[in-house]
C-alpha cells in the first residue's frame, strides 16, 4: 500500500540545499536580464503582454537551470560533444568547415576542434570540463589549456565548464598573448544553448492578434 503523499511549503523546500541552490540560480538568471528588472519595478501596472514576457523569461530561466544540471549528470564524452554542437550551431565552421571530437585519455588538453575553412587554416580548439558547482576552474587548468594551444601553434581557444571560473583563471585567460581564449561558464553555456536551440525545443508559442486598420480603411475599399 502506498504511503500518504506529503506536501511541502516553499519555505520548507528552501531548507533543502539542492532546491535552494536551484531557486537561487533561477533568480540570478532573471536578475541578469535588464527587462526583468525593469518590469519588476512596475509589476502592478504591467499589461498582459509584459506579464507573458515576464513569465516566458521565468520559465526559460528554469529550463536553463535544469539543462545545466542535466549536463553535469551526463558523461564527460557526452558533454564534450554537446559543446562542440553548440559552437557549430552558433555558426563557427562556416559553410565548408569541419567539427571533430578528439576528447579521450591522453588528448593533450584538447576535447574538440572546429575547422573554420576547408583547408583548416583557422581552427578553434575546445576544452570542456563537466564540473560540479563546488569544483571551479582555476589557474592550473587554464595554463594547461594554454600549453595545449601553444603546442599546436593555435591562437583561438574556447574553455567551457558547467561550473564557473575563479578570478585567477579569468586573469590568466585574459593575459594570453599568443591569441584569444574565451571562457564560458555554466550560466552562459545554457543561455547560449537556448538561444541557438541546442538540446531544447520550442514547447509552446502564443499568437497575439491586433486590429488591422487597413481593413477598415473605407477609402481603399
Describe the structure.
It contains eight helices and five strands. The protein is globular and about 75 Å long. The chain has helices at residues 10-13, 17-31, 34-40, 48-73, 76-89, 139-151, 167-174, 186-195, and strands spanning 98-101, 112-115, 123-129, 156-161, 180-184. It folds into two domains: 10-73; 76-184, Trna Endonuclease, Chain: A, domain 1 (3-Layer(aba) Sandwich), CATH 3.40.1350.10. Helix 2 (17-31) crosses helix 4, helix 4 (48-73) crosses helix 8 (186-195) and helix 6 runs parallel beside helix 7. Strand 4, helix 7 (167-174) and strand 5 (180-184) form a beta-alpha-beta unit. The longest helix has 26 residues, at 48-73. It has a five-stranded mixed beta sheet with strand order 1-2-3-4-5, sandwiched between helices. The model is unreliable at 1-5 (pLDDT under 50). Helix content is 44%, strand content 12%. With 221 residues, the protein is of the alpha/beta class.
